Every structure is written in C-alpha cells, then in structure tokens.
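QA checklist item 7 of 12: single-chain prediction sanity check.
[x] sequence parsed
[x] length recorded as 284
[x] structure emitted
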Amino acid sequence: MNKDSRYEILLSALPYIQQWANKTVVVKYGGHAMQSEKLCMSLMRDLVLLNSVGIKVVLVHGGGPQIDELLKLYGKKSKFINGLRYTDEETMQVVKMALAGDINKNLVSAIEKQGGEAVGLCGIDGKILIAEKIEEPDLGFVGKIKKVNCDFINLLLDNSYIPVISTIAVDEQMNAYNVNADYAATRIASELHAEKFILMTDIEGIRKDVDDPSTLISKIDISDLPKLKEEGVISGGMIPKVDSCAAAIRQGVNSVHILNGTTEHSILIELFSKEGIGTMFQKI
C-alpha cells in the first residue's frame, strides 16, 4: 500500500471518528468468538484504537465453552433449560472461576499488551450488576439484571479506561448469580444510554438461508422478528441474541448490530465505513 492510499484511508475514516467521539459503544464478546488467541488479540487492538480516538468502549464477555470445559475437568455435566445454564452451588463456583477469573483477566491482559488501559470487573465489584433470581423455571443460581451501577462504569470511562465486565451479578444480600451474557450486555448498554451495542459472535449476522452467506440480512426491523422466528430464519441459540438486540432498541440504544467476531477488524469496518457489516437492527 502506497502513502497516498494510507492517507485516503485515514481521511475517509475521519468523519466517522468525529461522529463517534465521546460516544459509548458496548461490545458483547461471545465465548465461541474468543477461542482464537490471534483473533482475540486483533479485536483487543481494535478496541484500544477506538478508545484512543475518544470512543468510550465497554467490553462485556461471556464464556460458555470455557465453562463447559472447566466443568468437564470437575467431572460435571452442563445442563441447560430453555437455553440457560442450570447453575447449582458447585457450578456457580466454576462460573466464577471461568468468567471473573481466567477469561476476564486474560482479556484485560490482552488490552494492556496492545497499549490500552483496562479494568476487569464482575457484577460483584462495586455491586455494578444487581440481580434477582429467576424463579420460573428454577435454574438454581441464575438471575436477571434489576439495576446497573452506571456511576462506577462511567467513572472508568471518563478516565479513559476500558471496563471489561463478566456477567456475574449479586442480589441485595450479596448472593451471586450467573446471568446470561447477552441479556446482561443489553441491560448495560441500555442503562449507559450507549450510542451503539454490538454483539460479536461466530457468524456474520442473520441469514435467510443459514448455509448461504449471500442471503445475509443487512437490516432488520424489530417488528419483523416474530415472522422470522416463525419461518425458522431465527432459531436455537440465535433467539436470545436477537431478543437482546430488540430489547436494546426498545430501551433506547440508537443502533444494534450482530457482527462476526471471527472476521478481523469487523468492528472497525462497522464503525468507520459507510457500508458497514453484519446485521443491523432498527425500529422504523
């Protein structure tokens, strides 16, 4: 690439950098998308770049595959009810080890290696995620978010840190709960009044035909979601992700996207180009 080409790329990105400066972008990073160390380091570099040009980045992460592997080491099988992990007391300890320990600190370390400044948190820290138990069905120590302590998160953002949040929450009595990362990230984005909410997973978006990349749906109005579910276009593990996108739109987040976290620089293409990438959810 010659010097003129590099100049043109930087110049074309400038309006988007100005558009997003001082805005909050919440990124949910999925367990399957983070399994490649190379891709993980690439994404962390991209997040540091965003932070460096004045975009306030919050990284919320899951870790389902990693939890599964750790449970296997303990000779314990994973159990799911309606797509949510049944979490007894022993499983809760494993969830804490995986999410708040290994995964969270590895992501913080990756950001620091790229020259950024990050703070690793779970919902217990500063009581940033207040939850209540899901009563029906009984899932054990599984909760849903009641409140997000935005003051603590904004304090970090205002001082140019990237908060890296694992989705373990507590109730008022400090009992810990496992919370679905998609739903937790949605609530965090909504309560922070984020300008953009991005779910990074291992597919590039919603396809009309799951086996045909050319059928990618670039924009979906949330009023069309029931029909797409009925037709089977949205099914299985994609349902909670899509429901999270719709909830974020209804709760005031300006734009919501599903992007492929296994595609390098997908988040930069989405933010800094006219074409964008993945599937965008909107309300017409």
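[x] summary fact logged: The chain has a mean pLDDT of 88.
[ ] second reviewer sign-off
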